[in-house]
Design goal:
With about 700 residues, this protein is of the alpha/beta class. The protein is built from 24 helices and 21 strands. The protein binds adenosine-5'-diphosphate and magnesium ion (MG).
Length: about 700
């Protein structure tokens, strides 16, 4: 008989766990005893000693022990219960703003107490608000902790002490004959000096008292390292498995059609940069093989990814296949439509359009021409892959990702394509660079091409960080720029995630700027305008008959006016660095020196200051992306914090980046030599989060 597994032991087997508590544990993702072992502490507290009351300082977390000398209800601005606790060295107040009569009675003068909390300066001198405490019969009754005290992520109504007790019971199982399975091969453990799983789990839940607290909380505990490694490995294996599945399928072989390419390149007003050429060569090689291409095209804002996408599309179309080009927003999709119509119409290629707003006969016609194969390139939003869209011969999907299609949607899309028995090639383009570490994890299923240069003649944008108190000066600056025959943008940023409010803010700003700058011709553009209105405003701004364009972040994408040399971004502190970088990329496209003013609302938080300083110091998208990751974390950077795929239990991509090369090598080894552990590892760390079909 196989020995019982910890993941088959139900929570109610544990002492004190009934159905009600079990439900609460379920809320935080714990369903069995093994889950408890993988429910890891957020941080630790040091309760291995008793601090003398006379020696405490403000801000310190302390464990105290003494006798209550008085206990009174006080009526100040807020009613509170105040107890004075004394030991040989001094006296301190414990204050409770919420308390019951029974609690007051249990804390009467003469009671012996041990408590833990943060020291602050209060009404009576040093105080602790709502300490965790235990009433003692005598001081030796309860031994003090001999390990650091873990603090776990928890949920309402589930106290730390209770959770600690339950985890403690789960840890006891490890001492018995029921092991938690260590899937990692000895070969990997010894090569990397990693702990055995059981030791790692113990070390993380009950680090020894002499382990340095900082060292532990910084996540460099060897136990944590082992677990982070395993988790990162599981994620990578999951992505690599998608890749393997895909490699086993057959895609159409699309060879380059030199005549069509020649014709296209001759029509361009410029020649390709070296970076564009080599990226396209890589893509072209992939497309001409029968294995589906899965490639990520990275390049800084303005590096010219669109042209590379166009070349790729031509290669598919030249072989009689269709191409779908999907963008995350309607505005960006429209911008692509304009570009591609202009490029492809002279080549007699049929370009179609489909968005969620395409309805009625228009939609019907469009779907027909896609189904018949008459439409060769279909551009739009994720409407391109709704169930009623049937392609006659789809050969290539291009996704202009903008970070907004998360990993999930991308995989869901592939699922969908597979359900329709299509194995097209896939090209994913990101708006701004992604740090190498993130790319290695979130895009482990993709090959990567990088355009590492900008078209010639671009001058870096000069960036200033200015407080809103100096708005007048900024407005004068706009006047000067516009009267010197240059153009400017004024960008109003997101308010409370509401598009309606954002548009309203842009309207108000446009009005007030119109009053302040009567000699400047001002236009307004935002997401609520009809496509036609937007196009007409953009046309006027391009032609120079508008000098200042007040806009929401819709201009983040696709807008291309080389004569614009000044951009003011209001409340830049609300945006991520990648988005600011993307916005700023709208200027600095012409031959004059361009400027960007980050007009912040003071006071700025410390983090806000740091972030804006990064923008001032650098125009290098890869550097900015690294900083963004460091300052905000991977969920924010990839826009996946809600979707969960890139959210880790133990690992932290920024902190644990140093492990990633080893994770990559280990994943190759595992797939080659230990394929049987892929499934259980993925299940342990990702659970059933690997289903994307319903996105
Ligand atoms: P992104 O990589 O940000 O999507 P785009 O494809 O929008 O960049 O290109 C930015 C601008 O640079 C466009 O106006 C495009 O026409 C222009 N461009 C692209 N490639 C070149 C090149 N090789 N030489 C000069 N201009 C180029
Ligand atoms: Mg682009």
């Amino acid at each position: 008989m196989a020995s019982p597994q910890l993941d088959q032991i139900s929570l109610t087997q544990l002492k004190g766990v009934g159905p009600a508590l079990e439900k609460k544990l379920n809320v935080i993702g714990i369903y069995n005893v093994q889950d408890l072992l993988f429910h890891l502490p957020l941080r630790y507290e040091d309760r291995t000693r008793i601090n003398p009351i006379g020696g405490v300082t403000v801000g310190e977390n302390v464990q105290l022990q003494g006798e209550i000398v008085s206990c009174n209800i006080q009526f100040g601005r807020r009613r509170s219960l105040q107890c004075s606790l004394s030991d040989d060295s001094g006296i301190i107040s414990l204050r409770f703003f919420y308390f019951s009569a029974a609690q007051k009675n249990s804390l009467a003068a003469g009671t012996k107490l041990r408590c833990y909390g943060e020291v602050r300066r209060g009404r009576t001198g040093f105080e602790i608000y709502h300490p965790e405490y235990k009433v003692l019969q005598d001081f030796e009754e309860v031994p003090i902790a001999d390990a650091l005290t873990p603090i776990y992520p928890t949920t309402e109504g589930l106290q730390q002490a209770r959770l600690r007790n339950i985890v403690g019971q789960a840890l006891k199982y490890l001492e018995g004959s029921i092991a938690v399975q260590d899937y990692l091969p000895a070969e990997i453990l010894s090569e990397l000096g990693l702990h055995y799983l059981t030791d790692a789990i113990r070390l993380v839940h009950q680090p020894p008292a002499d382990a340095p607290l900082k060292w532990i909380n910084a996540g460099t505990n060897p136990g944590q390292k082992r677990l982070a490694f395993e988790e990162l490995l599981a994620h990578r294996l999951c992505m690599r498995r998608f890749r393997n599945d895909s490699d086993a399928q057959t895609a159409p072989k699309l060879t380059a059609n030199d005549k069509l390419l020649q014709q296209f390149l001759e029509g361009l007003a410029f020649s390709l940069t070296g970076g564009q050429q080599s990226a396209y060569q890589q893509i072209s090689r992939d497309l001409s093989s029968a294995c589906p291409m899965l490639r990520l095209l990275q390049g800084d804002v303005g590096s010219g990814k669109t042209v590379v996408a166009a070349l790729s599309a031509l290669q598919a179309i030249g072989n009689g296949f269709q191409v779908a080009l999907m963008a995350p927003t309607e505005t960006l999709a429209e911008q692509h439509l304009l570009n591609f119509e202009q490029w492809f119409t002279p080549l007699e290629i049929q370009v179609g359009w489909l968005s969620g707003k395409t309805k009625g006969t228009l939609r019907k016609k469009q779907l027909e021409s896609v189904a018949s194969g008459e439409c060769q390139l279909l551009i739009g939003t994720h409407a391109l892959f709704q169930d009623d869209v049937c392609y006659q011969r789809l050969g290539l999907i291009i996704i202009d990702e903008q970070h907004r299609f998360g990993v999930h949607q991308r995989l869901a899309l592939r699922d969908k394509a597979a359900r329709h028995r299509l194995n097209p090639h896939q090209l994913v383009m990101t708006a701004t660079p992604i740090p190498r570490t993130l790319a290695m994890s979130a895009y482990a299923d993709l090959d990567i091409s990088i355009i590492d240069e900008l078209p010639p003649g671009r001058m870096p944008v000069n960036t200033a960080v200015i407080s809103n108190d100096r708005r007048d000066q900024v407005i004068q600056r706009i006047e000067k720029t516009c009267t010197e025959n240059n153009q400017a943008y004024w960008v109003c940023t997101l308010i409370e995630e509401s598009e309606a409010l954002q548009c309203q803010a842009a309207e108000v700003t446009a009005d007030s700027l119109t009053k302040l700058l009567p000699n400047i011709k001002i236009g307004l553009i935002h997401g609520r305008l009809k496509s036609k209105q937007k196009a007409s405003v953009m046309e006027k701004f391009k032609a120079g008959s508008l000098q200042l364009l007040v806009a929401t972040t819709v201009i983040e994408v696709g807008v291309d006016v080389p004569n614009a040399s000044l951009m003011v971004i209001e409340n830049p502190e609300r945006l991520g660095l990648a988005q600011l970088h993307q916005l700023r990329g709208r200027v600095g496209r012409g031959s004059t020196r361009s400027h960007c003013i980050l007009l912040y609302q003071s006071p700025l938080s410390k983090a806000g200051k740091q972030r804006l300083a990064v923008m001032r110091e650098s125009t290098d998208g890869f550097y900015i992306a690294e900083k963004d990751l460091e300052l905000r974390g991977p969920g924010q950077v990839l826009g996946t914090q809600q979707t969960g795929l890139m959210s880790f239990k133990v690992a932290d991509i920024a902190r644990d980046a140093y492990l990633l090369d080893e994770v990559r090598d280990a994943s190759e080894l595992v797939m080659r030599q230990y394929p049987e552990i892929v499934d259980p590892l993925v299940r342990r760390w990702l659970g059933d989060r690997t289903h994307y079909a319903n996105v």
